[in-house]
Structures are given as C-alpha cells and as structure tokens.
Amino acid sequence: MSAMKLEHDLWVLVADGEKALFLRNEGDALYPNFQVVREVHHDNPSTHEQGTDRPGRLNDGVGEHRSAVAETDWHQLEKERFADEIANRLYKLAHKGTFQKIVLVAQPQVLGEMRKKLHKEVSDRVVGEVAKTLTNHTVPEIEKILAAA
Q1: Can you tell me the mean pLDDT for 69-95?
Q2: How far apart are CA 93 and CA 101, in angstroms?
Q3: CA-CA distance, 143 to 77, in Å (whole number)?
Q4: Tens digits of per-residue pLDDT, 109-130?
Q5: Domain range 11-40+74-148, its CATH number among 3.90.226.10, 3.90.180.10, 3.30.420.60, 3.30.70.1450
Q6: Number of other residues whose CB lies within 10 A of the CB of residue 49
Q7: C-alpha distances in Å from residue 132, one per residue of 16, 34, 82, 83, 110
Q8: Which of 11, 13, 66, 124 has a 20 to 30 Å separation from 40 between CA atoms?
Q9: What are the boundaries of the region Disordered (predicted)?
C-alpha cells in the first residue's frame, strides 16, 4: 500500500463520537507538521446515564404473548448527532473556502455517519479516509500513522 500524500495546506479531521480535531498540515509531504486549528468536545455519557426508562413491551395481539422492545441506545444516537454537527461544520468551512483538500479519520461508525451527511461541496474535497480511532493519539503520532497509511 502506498503512503498517503500529506501535502502542504491539507486539512485532516480526526474524530470519534465525542471529540473532533481539525488539523492543517503546515509542513509538506515529506515532513508533515500538523497544527490544531480547532478542537471540539461533545459530552456523551453512556446510555444508562442518559436514559432512565426500562425497555418497553408490546402486545402481539390476542392472548397473553408480549414482546420486548429494545432499549434506545442514547449513546449511539449522540454519536450520530455529533457526526451530523461535524458534517455541518465542514460544510460551512468548505463553503467559505477555508480548505481545498481534507482527509477524514474517524471511528468506523462515525465515519459512516459523517459520510452520509456530507454536503457535495465537502465530499468533493475529500482526498482520503481512514477508519480508525485516533483522537487519543498525540498530533505527532497522528502524523506518523497517516504518513504510513
């Protein structure tokens, strides 16, 4: 696999369901130097801290038979909302001409949700995607991982 070309002024979004880093390469393809442009945090407690209702039950019709209804995964819903928020933020930045090329690096589920929500103006500027969770890595570690991707 060939290494990803991390050219000068390339933007990189590193996200999961609770944190997003907007990075810009101030270096070049040989010596990337990512600088944090913006960091966004989203409070997303676990499902049991967000929802207090017990799972529901449905009557299946005549008789005594009842079926359980799956509990809502509030934590996953918040991840999807955050992906939507990030997609909207990327659209505003792209519309202003803030970046010309971007690489999306996100947890696989978050990347999938973002991909669905990206405006054409943003998706036309996406030059690479990496389905990994890198939000807890340092910026130099992210540089090395992407250079090897």
Answers
A1: 82
A2: 11
A3: 30
A4: 889 989 999 999 999 999 999 9
A5: 3.30.420.60
A6: 10
A7: 9, 18, 17, 15, 10
A8: 124
A9: 43-62
